[in-house]
Amino acid sequence: MSEPANQTILRVDLTRKTIRKEPVEKELLKLFLGGPGVAAKILYDEVDHWVDAFDPLNRLIMIPGSLTGTLVPCVGRHFIITKSPLTGYFAEANAGGFWGAELKFAGYDFLIVTGRSEKPAYISIQDETVSILNASDYWGLNARDADRAIRRDLGDEKIKVADIGQAGENLVRIAGIMNDEANRAAARCGVGAVMGSKNLKAVAVRGHGVVPVADSGRLRNEVMKLNSELAKDESTQHFHKYGTAGGIEPCVVLGDAPVANWTKNSQFKEADQLNLPGGYSEISIGIRSCHNCSVSCRRVVSVRNGSYATEEKVEGPEYESVASLGSMCMVSDIKAVGKANDLCNTYGLDTISTGSVIAFAMECFEKGKITADDTDGMTLRFGDGEALVALVRKIALREGFGNVLAEGVRRAAATIGKETEKFAIHVKGLELGMHDPRANQAMSLTYACSPTGGRHMEGETLWVETPAFPVPELNLEGLDRLSTERKPEAAFKVQNLWMALSAAGYCLLACATGTTKPYTITRNIELYNIATGTQISFDEFMKAGERIFNVRRAFTMRHGARRSEDTLPERLLKEPIPAGPSRGSVARLDEMLPKFYEMRGWDPVSGKPLKQKLLELGLEDVAEDLYDDYQYKQSTR
Amino acid sequence: MTNASSEREVLIVLGGFQGFILRVDLTTGKISKERINEHQARLFIGGPGLGAKILYDEVPPWVESFDALNELIFCTGPLCGAGTFSVGRHFILTKSPLTGYFGEANAGGFWGAELKFAGYDMIVIRGRASRPRYLFINDDVCEIRDAKDYWGLDARETDRNIRKDLGDSKIRVATIGQAGENLVLFASVMNDEANRAAARCGVGAVMGFKNLKGIAVRGHKNVPVADESRLRAIARETGQMFQKDTYTKTFHKFGTAGGYEVAVMLGDSPVRNWSGERFEGVENLSFPGGFERVSTGTRTCHNCVIACRRVVSVKDGPFQTENGVEGPEYESSSALGGNCGVSDIEAVTKANDLCNVYGMDTISAGSAVAFAMECYEKGLINDVDTDGIDLKFGNAPALVEFMKKIAFREGFGNVLADGVKRAAHRIGGGADKYAIHVKGLELGMHDPRAFEAMSLTYACAPTGGRHMEGETLWVEQNMGIPYDEMDLAGLDRLSTDRKAEAAFKVQNVWTALSASGYCLLAAATGTTMYLLSDNLHFLQAVTGWDMNFDELMKAGERIFNVRRAFSMRHGATVDEDTLPERLLHEPVKFGPSKGSVARLDEMLPEFYALRGWDPQNGKPTKEKLLELGLDDIARDLWA
């Protein structure tokens, strides 16, 4: 393996108002592939267990992937790595669009923000010129208005802005960080609240450089070949035409997409009204692309009039948002869902967590745990689109009952009491992604054991669990989604793969799900090698993914997670899916967990990665942290 | 809903307790009253003892200090307001933003007794208001009110304005200043017109995070007493004794500031960031001595026989203060004076008053400035960092200037506002050597190199470097009246012999007496004639409990372990049971403690054994927890 190219970290301390540039250690790039992989190790090294999420010493790391900004298709993502205020553990959120590539063009591979500005501030990055500027004029604006105002005031339309809306300012624990005029969201784990706690409104970036690649001629050839194949691939073109929202109806039918706060899966006949094609067609007016993407799955929508009217051209809800704001709340009016989605975007809220906490509130209301006295007079029933839209606003602004829900389902349940924690569907404090582990058993392991809590993007096994989407390199053919057989192996492999692909910058939906058939994993790795000049094999690539997963896990364990938290909400373990092709299924986590721990090399008692596993992965320092014993400390004191 | 009058009929009167916890949720705006559990009260005595168990039970490890679900518990001991002496204290418990572990602060004055008179032993505050609010408690009427008119005001103005606006000057107000609003991690909660401070562990920042500006209280109820005639008899007897007691008189005359000079001479009171050096200007701060220049009178807390509070004023010049404000106590003189090398009493008085009005812990604020001064002198920071201020030891105007910069998080004040542990991380370059803290809390102003057992209190206290977890120095110097019950006569302060035992006993007795409501300085140091047996007899008379001394000590041990269990469960590790390197390796350079370092390692194994703590992980062992009747905690820690 030859030497990877130089990468640069830009460090900003908002407390001391200092800006510093430094090179990334080459060894880190080799071990962790770059991007969020390296960022995980930096967070592990720099954020001690006694640092809280809202502590000025918490780091907010904003990074594109290793390949972002190159010719390689479908790598237009950036990632936010920090300590989560929802879980208290490792946090990741990521988004597509143009911000990540722009940071690369400006000459930076990593932005690490620490400290807390005394007044609202934003960071301006224009190639070499980096400054911390006063954001008082933008504080209080929504994320879209702030994006536009900053570009206007800096006098350059082409600047790319990542920013928070009012939700992040108000430390709403389910706030995200938006970009592309608040149409794209790095939303999970409450990363927007961390940005708000730093009094940081935005990071505005403009760059004019070129991202260096090892062999640009060969890369160009390979990419042209790939793109022409993708243009002919039926599955890719279907994805282009309908985007992720094309999946809502089939997923509801299957029992995968949750309905009515995970109580009525497969019992939502109106799902077609949210699907594309279907009811979604009514608001869909176009398609957009992320930076250098050969798929282009972003929906442009518009609700022209009525109480759910939106701006002329905003982006429409993706699958996760249609599910969380739609089927989870049983709202079948696509205009209401479109509006709620756009409000989440402008206020800067995670649609998954927002929809989940509203569905939770609806169940609490219907079951008499809360009444109109608690909800500022609102009637909260499943299916009420007006209540949905009204609550999004209340949550972002922490108005009345919104102040309860703004803390996420775990804390909302603790505030309401009355055993409502049964309705709070989360793992480690993070609301679950919109795929039911009862419909795809290996998802149980991803949700229960992931370092970030209930995040589906830690390894979405459902693609390999369904025969339609083979990923040949993984050797996982013939799985049965309702069986637990070989599922620890599936979870282990998919998680490692997804970690490694993420580190490279690949959009996982485009590159790791099997939906773009010509874009195989072999090709992902080949392009990585051509661009970076390394000679990494498939096995090494997977090993790097395992290494990254374990560093994240180690962070979470060191920050207080316990083995007993590797579980699922009782509802998913005990209440079967009531209808449809997954009828009768519960998440059989216990059947899979021991084998999974064994494959992962994790201690079944403490849940920590075992010493020998850490050493095998070359993580000696982490091993020393996790297994440093009393005698050792005494002798070196 | 139960009828209120029938509720009163079935209520068993528990002496010393009003019997109610007031629960306030700032997120939902709900307020409710809850009965005190009598069984729990006896196990944990009440006040901060009972409060510790509630905090343990209700704040799980995933709740952070700046979290709507973190609780802020204001409580008083059973003796407070019941007619005994030197019990006018209130206690604030929360998860600390400085340490992430158990947090306690407490203050004297009149607020605690007023809360008791209003009919409550405790307020448990949860949630986070979306806009600034304050709480008004007028006997049975409790309201969450809009505080937008007070947000941004200092603690003294807030206190005055709230009382004026409510039209009752007898209302008592506990409030934060701007430091708490700005989440300065060592912000305090002030009372008595911002002259008294519950300051340690960043309790004011937690209040600020909750958007709670203050708690205004007015009460008219009596505190029930189990045995009135016995109480009167003990009060008469001890009252006469106090009148004759010369210790008490000296203490009244000079207050805690009277101890400053001796402590500096002994090497106990830190100088120039714990350099272990002599402090030339000490007489300018001592009392009698330079302190006389600012002292204008004395004041008392609720029902105190000592009345040690200093009234001071700086009449003119750059450090001018209002008339009738209160002066620096021992800890403040030491932190803002000697530890910063500042020997100008007017500057120290001004810095102290600024801490009070902005609402900041004088110990942590002084420690942060002293830390910065050392970093500056050693070249780790320069004029660019300090906004042009020449931050050398002894620069009195710089000290005063930095109080404001910290409270408002201006410039370099924003770095120091996070406490020394975090400031050192931010500065880097080895600055952590100069950050004198344990578990993130700046140390109290007593040097363990001068009193070896203090090493154990600082290193192992659940709250971090807090001296009030068990100030062993009194028994270590055989000072004042001997406490026979403790059986600790003849200790040598520089030896480690029997120090594990001393720390164990003093911690337990201090924890138990705190839970009862006592002012520890008045009642547990031997500097007054207040005997431990008097303490116990008062507790028996007021509560009606037939508790003996051993049981009292056991209750103290139980509480100490609940607090420890909280900290361990919230992530404390055994290797955090240590002291700053400086205290372990750099000897005192002068005087009667010359050559001494803190020999923690010599004492730690025995201390762990006495405490029944696992030496591998620092947790109280299962056996110890079961012995103390803490079965539920044993399940949590050893599942």
Helix content of chain A: 25-40%
For the biggest sheet of chain B, the summary is: 6 strands, mixed
**How many H/I helices of chain A?**
26
The amount of beta strand of chain B, in percent, is 5-15%
Oligomeric organization of the protein chains: heterodimer
Strand content of chain A: 5-15%
Could you tell me the number of beta strands of chain A?
A: 17
Shape of chain A: globular
Q: Which strand order does the major sheet of chain B show? A: 2-1-6-3-4-5
Supply Rg of chain A. 23 Å
Largest interface: A-B, 42 and 44 residues
Low-confidence parts of chain A, pLDDT < 50 over ≥5 residues? Answer: 630-637
Concise synopsis of the structure shown:
The complex is a heterodimer of chains A (637) and B (639). Chain A is of the alpha+beta class and 637 residues long.
Descriptive account of the structure:
The complex is a heterodimer of chains A (637) and B (639). By secondary structure, chain A is an alpha+beta fold. In chain A, 39% of the residues lie in helices and 12% in strands. Chain A has 26 helices and 17 strands. In chain A, helix 2 crosses helix 18 and helix 11 packs parallel to helix 13. The longest helix of chain A is centred in the last third of the chain and has 21 residues, at 538-558. The radius of gyration of chain A is 23 Å and the shape is globular. Mean pLDDT of chain A is 96; it is low at 630-637. Chain B is globular. Chain B contains 26 helices and 17 strands. Helices cover 39% and strands 12% of the residues of chain B. In chain B, strands 2-1-6-3-4-5 form a six-stranded mixed sheet. In chain B, strands 8-7-12-9-10-11 form a six-stranded mixed sheet. Chain B has a three-stranded antiparallel sheet with strand order 13-14-15, covered by helices on one side. Chain B is of the alpha+beta class and 639 residues long. Chain B starts with a helix and ends with a helix. Chains A and B meet through helix 15 and helix 26 of A and helix 16 of B.
